[in-house]
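Lab notebook page, bench 4
Experiment: in silico fold of construct C2
Operator: M.H.
Input chain length: 236 residues
Purpose: comparison with the prior construct
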Amino acid sequence: MLKNIFRIIIIFVIGMVGGIFADQIIWLYLGEDPFFYEYQQAKVPVSLTEKNEITIQENVALQEAVEKVEKAVVGIKTKDGKTISGSGIAVTSDGLIVTLAKLVPREGDFVFFVDGKTPDWQILKRDVKNNLVLIKVEEKDLATVGFADFNGLKLGERVFLVGVIFPESEPIKIVNEGIVKYLTKDYIRTNIFENNTLTGSPLFNIKGELLGLNTIDSQARVTAIPINTIREFIGF
């Protein structure tokens, strides 16, 4: 019995060593054969590399989209800087800006920060029901963005916002990202949470196309007024 066990062990060891040796020898002689090369390549795990590459590509796409849209994002605050502040978006190069109506009440003295400038402005129209207001600033050659196709928006789609905050005297841009959590024809709910100072910040898809303007509730949840509502309001 003991001899048989030793024989089995010896056969197993010889077989294992022989298999390793044969694999290396065959690789040396047949490595240039296309079929054998594909066989060897199939044995190499690549999932981790592919995952890393996809992550890098997504991050680059987000960075490029932010760079594409950030100059079109407008900051808004009352002149005393204590009452109201938020963001909006330039929709035409000749000075049309859309933002939330509650950021620009009928009585108030506001400053609009447009690409480093603070031009004069006037209110063109207001939609209290949908919380939108259209502003005309005395500035030309503004950066603008394209409009997304709302009907093509999907659950789980990657989105991001760009807004303006005023921690000091000068405004700064801030970015946050997430996904579409759910949506209706009247609003887009994201999984993004933000401070109320980013009210009115535009929401974009990963292509840098405008999806809507953000409202922020008491629980810091970001929900956007969709682009179809905005387009109907501004008339194009």
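Observations: Confidence is low (pLDDT under 50) at residues 25-32. The radius of gyration is 29 Å.
Next step: discuss at group meeting.
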